[in-house]
Amino acid sequence: MESGPSAECCGESQAAPAVGRAETGMAILPTEAAVYTTIDQFRRDFRETTEGTLKVLRALTDESLSQAVVPGGRTLGRIAWHLVGTLTEMPAHAGLPVDPSVAEAPVPTRADEVVSTYQRAVVACEQAVVHAWSDADLLGEIGMYGETWSRARVLAVLMAHEVHHRGQMTVLMRQAGLRVPGVMGPAEEEWAAMGMPVQP
Ligand code: NI
Predict the structure, then answer these.
(1) Rounded to the nearest whole angstrom, what is the distance from the C-alpha of residue 5 to the centroid of ligand 1?
(2) What is the pLDDT of residue 67?
């Protein structure tokens, strides 16, 4: 992300004083040790999460990319592209051997370009983590966005960030009139397809 997760996700300026994790919006994350103690745990979670995100991205249309959160605000396309870019930007920031330049490219006008770039970023991210970091490396600490994080925390934040923006996208997609796929349970249309009433 261009200016770190707190600036992108919480609307805070990076110039704001960092007086604690609660102010960065990261305090709700589980402790890193409880999340990933092995690279394989991350890989399984990463694959499941990114498959869900891919379902959402595949439901985008070219026209929907310009759907704004508020008039003149961040668009669905920009959020999607930020999500794609972070998959290489954050790992690169953490010292992993990935090319972060996708985060710097303009937002595509075609939805299929978002999807294909995401797929490449997923492969690049997973391969970098798997090949460059060992289980023992996860407890090691590195500088991230003006703070000190363990590598396990980097991976946990990467996943939380993905789910956060994916949730934003599904709301905007409804507002754009798109059919939204179920990611963590069936979507409205999927309950209907099963002949069941929409569950709360
Ligand atoms: Ni963000």
Answers:
(1) 5
(2) 85
